[in-house]
């Protein structure tokens, strides 16, 4: 007995699966709305001559959402699903014997999601340009390659300053 509709259903079904699966892998990290009200983890100024200067020279503050704070305080340090950490990069401006915050250079983000970002250590990586919030095209593997140096703290370098 021929059932041509069965083949059609299977075809539609597998197409749906492919779209669904590829949809998961291409889905990126969203702009972290409201991160300025999250917990401040630490700050740092990266100057010329520092290994991170080319990448993130300037003044940065790191912020953690409440799930990321659970991770920073866990021992051993493992971050739960939905943890988001923001690296807010500003231009340092030297003025009147002080260093003050200049314009925002980038909003750099890590989001923990074992389903979407399994290929890069369960973290998604993203960069948004200055205040425009425009996503910058990056190679998440290059982020992951360096962050592997912090594999024993779940790929997160910074520690929470109490
Ligand atoms: C050459 C190494 C290196 C590369 C490449 C790198 N990072 Fe980092 N990243 C660091 C270090 C070191 C810190 C810790 C800075 C601090 O303690 O203030 C950091 C911190 C961060 C943080 C705060 C959480 C943490 O791990 O402390 C985020 C978010 C972040 N990086 C995102 C990215 C993204 C997105 C990329 C790729 C576009 C990237 N990083 C590429 C070295 C790197």
From TrEMBL:
Record's protein name:
Cytochrome c
A Pfam family of the record is: Cytochrome_P460
The segment(s) forming the Cytochrome P460 domain are 32-158
Which InterPro entries has this protein been placed in?
Answer: Cytochrome_P460, Cytochrome_P460_sp
Origin species, per record, is Meiothermus ruber (strain ATCC 35948 / DSM 1279 / VKM B-1258 / 21) (Thermus ruber)
Q: What Gene3D superfamilies does this protein map onto?
A: Cytochrome P460
